[in-house]
Design brief:
The protein is of the alpha+beta class. It has one domain: CBS-domain, CATH 3.10.580. The chain contains seven helices and five strands. It is globular.
Length: 127
């Protein structure tokens, strides 16, 4: 799949709970986790059209990210032949950095029950 966009991976994916859940479920070390094991596949990424983004305010984009729980939104358009292409990607962390505001859309574990719930999600992981 050289030269093909297959997905997105973030530093949070690598160092966060997603990698830990996969390691725990599969009984493997961090070094054995593959990018494909924890990346967000392109089919799972939400997208907005370039036209939608052109007419959106930052607050609209932030609300979209927050309500979807996604860290990223693809920006797409279509060629004359109707083929979708990626124009860009919007990142919650980029917005946060540029605006110098806290904007964390991820829910954090606030109790042991929350941690247990996150670990229990590991049963859905395929090894």
């Amino acid at each position: 799949q050289a030269d093909k966009f297959v997905g997105v991976i973030t530093a949070r994916d690598i160092s966060g709970t997603k990698a830990m859940i996969h390691m725990n479920s599969c009984g493997i070390s961090r070094q054995e986790v593959l990018v494909s094991d924890i990346m967000h596949n392109k089919t799972d990424l939400r997208s907005l059209t370039f036209e939608q983004v052109k007419h959106s305010r930052i607050g609209d984009i932030m609300l979209t990210l927050k309500s979807s729980g996604d860290q990223h939104l693809l920006v797409v358009d279509e060629t004359e032949l109707g083929i979708k292409r990626i124009r860009g990607i919007i990142s919650a962390s980029d917005i946060s950095r540029k605006l110098k505001v806290g904007f964390d859309i991820m829910q954090e574990a606030k109790s042991f029950a929350d941690i247990e719930k996150i670990v229990a999600q590991g049963s859905e992981v395929s090894c």
